[in-house]
Amino acid sequence: MHEHEIWLTALFNRFLAAPANAVLDLFKVEHEAAHPWTNWMSMELFVVALLVIVFAVLRSQLSVDRPGRLQHVFEVIYGFFRGQASDYIDHHPEKFADFSTTLFVFILFMNLIGVIPAFQSPTMYPMVPLGCALAVLAYYNWMGLRAQGVWGYMKHFAGPTPALAPLMVPIELISHLARPLSLTIRLYANMFAGEQVTMAFLALTYLIVPSLFMGLHVFVGFLQAYVFALLTLIYVGSAVAHEH
User: Fold this and answer.
1) pTM assigned to the model
2) DSSP notation for 6-26
3) Residue 207, domain member (yes or no)
4) How many CA atoms lie within 13 A of 16 on its CB side?
5) How many domains does the chain have?
6) Which pLDDT does position 98 carry in this prediction?
7) Does residue 3 sit within a domain?
8) Is the residue at 47 inside a domain?
9) Is residue 62 assigned to a domain?
């Protein structure tokens, strides 16, 4: 048995099953040969394609003298996260606004795509939030290593004095490894619950009550994308901070 396929996933499985099977076989991933594509895979790729189109259109319309509405929207989003970076990162915060803004926009589109009938939010599947969380883990650790060098960054794990290192290193390692888990569960649980509640009321009632819950779902989508991006900035800030 395989999950209920939305129309987009059915198209992927009909026309693109062979390349998906080849990749999954290469990595020894168990799958159903007739249905290698899952809803979260097709929807995440759809969001990526949608963002490529949006930014291609935006790039073609960029203007210093007469910026359009789309340019204004993304300038406001970028300016907001650049300001947030300044609040949490002491040295050159503008360097880290790009990643957090990109992460926010990507997660926001994935969260909100499920509001459209016949689509699903890929973030309601745990694999998608986990992938984003692992990207955050890799990013802030790499930024910390670049900013302070290997030895300087490792001192963050050792605590304020060498005597505490045997105690602090395991605690810090567990803390860092728990961050992706926390990011994953928070985003996945909120989006899954919102999707299920909205679908339940859509099946029972018409228009007014589902519309209220869809509005709440949109709000939660914005909030969770913001929290994910904000926590990323906080983690980066702690990783690149120099001890005084």
Assistant:
1) 0.92
2) PHHHHHHHHHSHHHHHHHHHH
3) yes
4) 13
5) 1
6) 95
7) no
8) no
9) yes
